[in-house]
Specification:
23% of the residues lie in helices and 7% in strands. It has 2 helices and 2 strands. A hairpin with a 4-residue loop joins strand 1 and strand 2. It comes from Zhongshania aquimaris. This is YfhL family 4Fe-4S dicluster ferredoxin. Keywords: 4Fe-4S, Iron, Iron-sulfur, Metal-binding.
Length: 83
């Protein structure tokens, strides 16, 4: 599943540059995550980098977007093929 940024986000700007898939962007009021680009860092790292650097722990799994490890890897492979 992809990750989601909750309303607890303080717009500290540390998560966005850590995302290897460029899935994090500034939304209207807080940072947001494009679920079509989020692979939970599968293919890049052992753990989601945005979660690792978030000072307020506001980036949980998006329970509305269930994906297996295999689906996340397929999404990663598609993203790197497109460039």
């Amino acid at each position: 599943m992809s990750l989601i940024i909750t309303d607890e986000c303080i717009n500290c700007d540390v998560c966005e540059p850590e995302c290897p898939n460029e899935a994090i962007y500034q939304g209207d009021s807080i940072y947001e995550i494009d679920p079509d680009r989020c692979t939970e860092c599968v293919g890049h790292f052992d753990a989601p980098q945005c979660q690792q650097v978030c000072p307020v722990d506001c980036i949980p799994l998006d329970l509305n977007r269930m994906e297996t490890e295999e689906q996340l890897m397929a999404k990663y492979e598609k993203l790197i093929a497109v460039g």
